Amino acid sequence: MFRSPSALVVGLVLLAACGDDGSMENAGTSTGTSTSGVGSSGSTAGASGSTAESGESTAAASESTADVTGSSTGPGGVSYSQDVRPVFASRGCIVCHHDNSAIDIDIADPFGPPNGLVGSVNTWAEAYPEGGTPMLNVQPGDPEASFLMNKIGDPDALDPATAGGHMPLNLAPLTADELADLRAWIDAGAADDATFEQNIRPIFGDETTLGGASGKCTWCHHSFPGGQRPNLTDPFDPNTGAVGVASVFDPDLQVIEPGNADASVLVTKVEANEVGAFGGPMPPQYEALNADEIELVRTWVAEGAQDN
Ligand code: HEC
Ligand code: HEC
After folding, report:
1. Is the peptide bond before 251 cis (omega within 30 degrees of 0)?
2. Residues with CB under 6 A from ligand 2
């Protein structure tokens, strides 16, 4: 599948640069070439400037690969973004429990104080101390001290007079697997791993892993001379980054518009299969983002493209 003629040229350059064993020894050289070849911005001097830098960092890249794989999984093997948020989303919790909803417990953003599910005070324990229910809705590290487990666990053990209704209210109860995942997540500390550093940085790559298996973008979109804009090693830079920065293709659109994945050129480009109004699909010559990666990028943008 040829995505664009220029991607083809770049692909050939990459093949020529790789050894027979497929090693990326000369990846630095092809970085320089590809940046000026495909695009628009790489000057020869700039490109060779970045050659040395990225060549050096290639070795570091292959060593760090193991770190990145599975990094979003907590000690119990359960992760908020992979295992817990999908339960909250698919079981109706966030329909009824979001910021400004009538029920003052936020499950859409469970980590935001003061009313995020994690760490918020159980209103039933406050109003009816005689019920003996846990003081907090989620006590990180302690499922037994987390009222959430009472609300979604055995319905018969819940006294409606002092603990309210079983959750999800009026809907089918959680399965044993879902309950086990939520318990394991609380047990492991109820951490938020749906962050830029955990989920998005490994897709984009960073300054020390240019061309490395951990990232698919910073090989070209880096901060060294000759780097293609946007600089995805620091997408939050208001001038050279992506978040809130106008697209070169259309100044009315942002490369990443926080909260609006559909309007973000970056999302359009990672989902594209062919050259369109916003240039070629991204990444050229690297394997395209898989469905999970696209979903992570979309979610991160939709949730405000935060630097966390
Ligand atoms: C149809 C709307 C609805 C759905 C769906 C729903 N809830 Fe609730 N939830 C409520 C209402 C109303 C209350 C307050 C009354 C009560 O506690 O019974 C509540 C209370 C709670 C409380 C107690 C908070 C406190 O401090 O009193 C927790 C915890 C909770 N829900 C968790 C969940 C979880 C987890 C889910 C998804 C598995 C969920 N809810 C789904 C409506 C809903
Ligand atoms: C092999 C080099 C290369 C790689 C790898 C690469 N890009 Fe690009 N990128 C370019 C070039 C060249 C352009 C300008 C031409 C174009 O847009 O087609 C560009 C343009 C862009 C733009 C348009 C910026 C704007 O102002 O609208 C975005 C967004 C983008 N890339 C995102 C990414 C993302 C995200 C990845 C990783 C998934 C990635 N790129 C990987 C070379 C690359």
Report:
1. no
2. 10, 34, 38-40, 216-217, 219-221, 228, 230, 247-249, 255, 265-266, 269-270, 279-280, 282-286, 289
How many residues are given for the chain? 308
Question: What is the count of structural domains for the chain?
Answer: 2
Owning domain of residue 264: 176-206+227-271
Residue 65 to residue 168: CA distance in whole angstroms: 40
Residue nearest atom 2 in ligand 2 by C-alpha distance: 220
Amino acid making up residue 122 = N
Q: Of 67, 68, 61, which Cα lies nearest the Cα of 202?
A: 68
SS3 content of the chain, % helix, strand, coil (to 5): 45, 5, 55
Sign of torsion over alpha carbons 299, 300, 301, 306: positive
| Alpha-carbon span 122 to 131, nearest angstrom | 12
Are residue 27 and residue 104 in the same domain, yes or no?
Answer: yes
The pLDDT tens digits of the residues spanning 271-290 come to 999 999 999 999 998 889 99
In terms of domains, do 235 and 293 share one?
A: no
The answer to whether 231 touches 220, Cβ cutoff 8 Å, is no
Handedness of CA 57, 62, 64, 69 (dihedral sign): positive
How many C-beta atoms surround the C-beta of residue 294 within 10 A?
Answer: 16
pTM to 2 decimal places: 0.62
Same domain? For 46 and 97 the reply is yes
Are both 39 and 137 inside the same structural domain? Answer: yes
Top-ranked range on mean pLDDT: pick from 74-88, 97-111, 199-213: 97-111
Same domain, 243 and 290: no
Question: Based on the domain organization, do 82 and 122 belong to the same domain?
Answer: yes
Considering every ligand atom shown, identify the ligand nearest to the alpha carbon of residue 173 and give its number: 1
Are 129 and 150 contained in the same domain?
A: yes
| Same domain, residue pair 139 and 58 | yes
